[in-house]
Amino acid sequence: MSLVVKDNSFDAVHKYYAGSTIGVALIALFLQGFLPIYFPHAGLLELPLLVTIYFSLARRNAVSGMLLGAGIGLAQDAISHLPLGIYGIALTVVGYLATWVGYRINVEVPLSRFALTFVLYGLERVIIAVVERYLLEQPGSILSLYWLIGSLLAATLAVLIFPQLDRLQKS
Amino acid sequence: MSVSPSRRPLLFLAAAVAAQLLLLAFQIQRNHHIRLIQVWAADVFTPAGRAGTSSIDWIGALWSGYIDLQNTRARNRHLQAEVDQLQLQVDRLRGRAAEGDRLAALLAFRQSNPALPLLAARVIGASLAPASKVLYIDRGARDGVHRDMAVITPNGVVGKILESFPSSSQVLLVTDRQSGVGALLSGSRVEGVVKGTDGPDLRMDYVEDGEKIKPGETVLTSGLDQIFPKDLPVGTVLASRPANPFQKIEVRPAAQLDRLEDVLVVLLHPKPLPPSTAGDSGAGSHR
C-alpha cells in the first residue's frame, strides 16, 4: 500500500462514538500523570500527543484538529502545573499538521503512523524547548538521546494503539 | 476582507497560537514580578510612543520653525522696534551721563573758584564759515553777558564774547587769528601773548630768544589782558624754535575746542587797558 494519497480513498472522515474523543483524551491525560509515579520514564511516551495525532488524522478537519490539540495541551499544562499554553501551543500546531498530513499521505499503514508520530513528537519537543528558552528563560537541550528514545517509543506505541483506537469508529 | 477557505485553517492556527502565547505571557513573570505581557506591551508601545512623541516634536518644530513664520516675523518686528527704542534710550542716557559729567566738572570748577562770577552756558551753534572761529551760546545780555567777557571751561580758555545779543552771544575762539590772550609759562613765569593761527593750534609770541622753553610746559593766563582771570590753563607747549627777536612757540589748546557743549562765562566787565600797553599785553582782540 502506498504512503502517498493517489485518490480520495483516504479522505473519508471517520465518525466516533459520542464522547469517545473526550474520554480517550482524559484517559491519556490521566495515564500521563499517573504512570510516571510507578514508571519514572513513562512520561516520555507523551500519550496526549498520540491522542491528538490520532484524532486529528481521523477527523481530517484542521480546525477540529487544532481545537483538540489546544484543549488537550492546555489540560496537560494545567495538570503539569506549567504555565498554560506551553503544551497548548505545541499540540495546537501538532493537531494542525497532523490534519494537513492526513490529507496527503495514507496514515492507515503502520509505517506512516510511525514516521508521522516520530516527526510530530520531535516537533512538539522543539516547540516546547523554544517556548521554555525564549519565554520562560529556561535553557534546555532541544535534541538529545533521551528525547530521541522517547520519540521512538512514542512512535512504536502509536503503531500499537492506533489500531485499537480505530475500534472506536462507527462502522 | 475575504479569506480564501484554503487559508482559513492557517489563520485559525495563527490565532490559536497567538492567543496561547498571550496566555503564557500573562502568566510568566520576569524580574520584580513583572508579567511578560507587560514587558511585551512596553516593548511594543514604547517605541511607538517614542516615535509618536518624536513625530509630534518634529511637526511642532516644523510648524514653529517654518510654517508659523507669520508670528515670528511679527515678533521680530516688535522686538526690533523694542531694541531700537531701547538703543535710543541708552543713547539718551549716555548723553545725559556725559552731560552730567560735564556739568559736574563745571560745578567743581565753579566751587574751586568761588571768587569768579561764572555763568554756565550751552553751545547752541557754530559758524558756518570754516575760516571763522566763532560759536554761539544760549546766554546773552539779559543774562548779564556782555562784549569781551571771557569764556572758559574747566580744562582751559575758550575765547571771549565777541557780540552779545539779548538771549545769545557770539564767542570768538582763541584759535582765531584775531584772538590774543595774555599768557605766561607755568615753569619760568615768562610772559607773552598767545594768538590764534586759524588752525587747531596756537602760537605764543613775545618770548625772547634766550629763554629756555621745554615742550610740555603749561601755558597759563597772565591776567594782564584784563579779560581772562589769572592762572587759567591756556594750553601746552608743543615745540619752540629760536628766532630773532622772539622765539616761535607752538601751543596746543587746553580746552577741547572742537567738541564744546557747555562753557562758563566769566561775568567780569573787562577793564579798559591803558593806551600804552593795549597792543603788547594781548588785550583779547585786535579787531
Topology:
The complex is a heterodimer of chains A (171) and B (287).
Chain A: H1 20-38, H2 47-59, H3 62-80, H4 86-104, H5 110-134, H6 145-166
Helix pairs in contact in A: 1-2, 1-3, 2-3, 2-4, 3-4, 4-5, 5-6
Chain B: H1 8-27, H2 36-67, H3 69-112, E1 118-126, E2 134-137, E3 150-153, E4 156-164, E5 169-173, E6 180-185, E7 191-196, E8 202-205, E9 218-221, E10 233-241, E11 248-253, E12 262-266
Antiparallel strand pairs in B: 1-2, 1-12, 2-5, 3-4, 3-12, 4-5, 6-7, 6-9, 7-8, 8-11, 9-10, 10-11
Overview of this structure, please?
The complex is a heterodimer of chains A (171) and B (287). Chain A has 171 residues and is mainly α. Chain A has six helices and no strands. Chain A has helices at residues 20-38, 47-59, 62-80, 86-104, 110-134, 145-166. The radius of gyration of chain A is 15 Å and the shape is globular. Residues 1-9 of chain A have low confidence and may be disordered. By secondary structure, chain B is α+β, with helices and mostly antiparallel strands. Chain B is 33% helix and 25% strand. Chain B has helices spanning 8-27, 36-67, 69-112, and strands at 118-126, 134-137, 150-153, 156-164, 169-173, 180-185, 191-196, 202-205, 218-221, 233-241, 248-253, 262-266. In chain B, helix 1 (8-27) packs across helix 2. Chain B is rod-shaped, with a radius of gyration of 43 Å. Chain B starts with 7 loop residues before the first helix and ends in a 21-residue tail after the last strand. The model of chain B is unreliable at 277-287 (pLDDT under 50). The A-B interface holds A 62-63, 66-67, 70, 74, 83-86, 88-89, 92-93, 96, 99, 131, 135-137 and B 8-9, 12-13, 16-17, 20-21, 23-25, 27-28, 30, 36.
